[in-house]
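Worked problem 6 (solution included).
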Amino acid sequence: MATNEQNKLLTQTGKNTPMGNLFRRYWIPALLSEEIPTPDCPPVRVKLLSEQLIAFRDTEGRVGLMDEFCAHRRVSLWFGRNEKNGLRCPYHGWKYDANGQCVDIPSEPTGSTFCNKVKLTAYPCVERGGVVWTYMGPPELKPPLPEFEWALVPDSHRYVSKRLQENNYLQAMEGGIDGSHVSSLHSGELNTDPLHKGTQGAQYQADLRPKFEVANSPGGMLIGARREAEPGQSYWRVTQWIMPWYTMIPPYGDHGVHGHAWVPIDDENCFAWSMTHHPTRPLTEAELHAMQNGQGMYAELIPGTYKTVANKDNDYLMDREGQKTGRYYSGVKGIGMQDASLQESMGPIVDRALERLVATDMAIVQARRRLMAAAEALPTGGEPPALDPATHHVRSASFVAASDVPLSQVEEIFKAKSGVAHTSI
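Solution. The predicted structure is:
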């Protein structure tokens, strides 16, 4: 459990909160590059860490991310005209460049320099891996760019999407490092989902009593769930958790490596980013089709939005007959929506003081401790973990090993090496 005070520390991420200050020290996935596909295309509303922002791509292709509201009368710049390297407010014509600097006030007399004094809060942006990343922290402390393998492989080797999840980032992220629920919640689809069926790993998930080993890593944690396989053998699924909100899911068969980023929109909503990549080959048409159609950890989206077709307003299209027969263990179709539906069912921010945690929750407990320690150390000069891109050069893995082999003896397989395939069964 976590006390009410600890829960507030962990879940509040707005300006000048301890966790909000910590998260602003990292490069943050802000939006997909495809959301602002061409120069001078329409602007897009972006809400991050409770800040209401606007993103646009200017005439030269530069991406701007700044305060959504015009400095004059606080009109939303979503209505703005994206023209000639700037976003112009339609109310009185004030125009801002990609750095948030006001460059024109039509009503000002000739020779006026007033616009030089007007600048909206704006954050630097970089595109990598089909994602627009932003840094919202102190400019002098800006870290190097992220170097997650999925963001560096060729475009053909990668698929990235995001979906809205209507709960605090933390309960979503905790689901991503909870290796014990797979054998129950997802059991109905491990042998039918195209990104899981037919793999040796899916067959070993029937063991409902995994043994956990959790070890700190430079960037976060290595979380191993060991299940019985053949006599004298153990099936390992090892998840990487990278600060502050990344999870790398153990792969199945020759399919790619999957991962999530749980990015706070505000304290009661987050974007669940989903990333799949294969280190050594392009993703196949069948794999892409499955992901684009909401299979595996993905979800079907309402066209033109990032809201899921199955959602709390329609009870996630609950199938009670499928629940009875075991086709869908929880009655909800799709691995991604099975997770999201239960995490949203906890409420916007779960009351962790009421929890009853057990041994299989050790990774969740340690992740909370790492987050709280990093946030509390920040005011006294503590350096947040995982700012060094070298800590991103890791992978998840699934494999079978002798039952007496500890994780420490197989650490080499968790390193991301260019041109070398990941370890998976």
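Discussion: The chain is about 20% helix and 25% strand.
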